[in-house]
Amino acid sequence: MIRIDKHNYYLDICETILERGTCIRRNFAAIIVKNDEILSTGYTGAPRGRKNCTDLGYCRRNELKVPRGTRYELCRSVHAEQNAIISSRRQDMIGSTMYLVGKENDSAELVKDASPCALCKRLIINAGINKVVIRDTKDKYREIYVEEWIENDDSLQGDGGY
To answer: What is the DSSP letter of 138?
Structure first.
């Protein structure tokens, strides 16, 4: 038996968690891990108590043909990264790793070039998370050190998309 590495172990857990998502376009899941313990998890979905897109049967951003990475104020969902962060204490997250997986709902394929949006990047930075590991294929992933987002502040140019 071949044992999978720790990153893929946590990314596989993310893939199961994203099945709870309620977004019609794409669903993400995030796990925050420190010292080999899961601190919190999150998936894409409407705020507690509000109807989500799967209940409503439509996505406003889809109807308006809003491009990926833009106009999040029109989205009903709280992002997976945000939900994971609000479910944990900052003092516990300092120096942790966030794992992130996204899947397209129409094709069930992994989201290509997935990355936290500009707002989620800011929350990840302020949470004290050290690294984000993002799944690209079933066994390949990218490791991004949050310090890079601080040193190379992409909010100073471009449109803020991803």
So the answer is: S
pLDDT at 162: 43
Phi, psi (degrees; rounded to nearest 5) at 39: -85, -40
Q: Which two tokens stand for residue 114?
A: 């997935």
Pairing of strands 37-43, 141-145: unpaired
> What's the token pair of residue 1?
């038996």
> How large is the C-alpha radius of gyration of the chain?
15
Q: What are phi and psi of 110, to 5 degrees?
A: -65, 145
User: Tell me: the pLDDT tens digits for 84-122?
Assistant: 999 999 999 999 999 999 999 889 999 999 999 988 999
Hunting for tokens 């490791």 — which residue is that? 143
CA angle 149-119-37, nearest 5°?
A: 70
CA distance linking residue 122 with residue 20, whole number of Å: 25
Q: How many Cβ atoms from other residues are within 10 Å of residue 130's Cβ?
A: 16
150 residue type, one letter: I
